[in-house]
Amino acid sequence: MKRSIAQSMKATKSKQVSTTTPAVAAKPETPKSRLLTMVMPKGVTLDRANADMATQGLVTNASLVTTFSRWELSELSLTDMVASLKESGTAVNNGDLKGAEQMLNAQAVSLNSIFAELARRSAMNVGEHMEAMERYMRLALKAQGQCRATLETLAAIKNPPVVFARQANISNGPQQVNNGVPTHFETNTRAHAPAQACGEIENQPTKLLEGTLNGGTTLDVGTTGAATRGHQELEAVGAVHRSKDPRRQGQG
After folding, report:
1. Opening angle at CA 42, ends 41 and 48, nearest 5
2. What is the rounded CA–CA span in Å between residue 67 and residue 174?
3. pLDDT at 191 over 70
4. What region, left, alpha or beta, does residue 67 occupy, with left being phi > 0 and alpha being psi -120 to 50 degrees?
5. pTM value?
6. What is d(CA 229, CA 227) in angstroms, rounded to the nearest whole number?
7. Quick one: pLDDT at residue 114?
8. Longest CA pairwise span in the chain (Å)
9. CA–CA distance, 196 with 127 (Å, rounded to integer)
10. Most confident segment among 12-26, 163-177, 197-211
11. DSSP secondary structure letters along the chain
12. How far apart are CA 108 and CA 72, in angstroms?
């Protein structure tokens, strides 16, 4: 009797259907360095928004920054990096170059450190490994040149050069302009001129000759010419005005 009860209970358990759902593998979370959250303006499609981001270059450059900075700054947020680049770009558009100046100064210091380290390694190979010494020295001088160029760029931003343009020559084809170069006639006449006239040749700027609005005077165009007849008849030259050539008469 006990055996039959045990067999019946075992058969009942085998017929029961499991109601528990199988465990589903959790979807891996997207890292924040690859996740971009943006607010789309009204009336703009997703494709147009992606095209605008590609044109502006903010997302691509932000992705580069997060990729190359993960070893020093761990993982950066792509969304926050895009926002930071947008703010710095807006500051540049408004004329605020403090961020660019600080970045250039920091890069100059870094390049100077690279130059010092490469020069030190070059000095360690002097007299023993000349090829390695030359390679290190070439790299050191390249870093030094980049440091100098960075400082020149920083100086140009702080103090922009002033250009004084005295003459603008615009031509679609070949053009030659001689400013202050004396011609052959001027050289001969200047040789007989007084000593005070033999100084430096001045390149006089172009001035307005007339114009009452600018304070000038109107040029005198001269008197009106007399009217002449139109369509005058041409007549043959008379015999009196011809030159006498005895050779021609003899030949005739």
Report:
1. 60
2. 50
3. no
4. alpha
5. 0.51
6. 7
7. 95
8. 171
9. 65
10. 163-177
11. -HHHHHHHHHHHHHHPPP-PPPPPPPPPPPPTTS-----PPTT--HHHHHHHHHHHTHHHHHHHHHHHTHHHH-PPPHHHHHHHHHHHHHHHHTT--HHHHHHHHHHHHHHHHHHHHHHHHHHHTTTT-HHHHHHHHHHHHHHHHHHHHHHHHHHHHHSPPP---------SS-----SS---HHHHHHHHTS-GGGSSPPP-PPP--S--GGGT-------PPPPP--SSPPP-PPPGGGSPP-HHHHHH-
12. 19
C-alpha–C-alpha distance, residues 227 and 251, integer Å: 47
Q: Angle, to 10 degrees, between the axis of helix 58-68 and the axis of helix 46-56?
A: 60
Considering only CA atoms, which of 114, 98, 116 is closest in space to residue 154? 98
Question: Looking up tokens 């990096």, which residue turns up?
Answer: 81
Tokens 């390149």 identify what position? 203
Question: What pLDDT score was predicted for residue 58?
Answer: 87
CB neighbour burial string for 230-244, b if at least 16 within 10 angstroms, e if fewer? eeeeeeeeeeeeeee
What tokens appear for 222 in the block? 């001269």
* The pLDDT of residue 147: 96
Domain boundary assignment for the chain: 44-96, 97-160
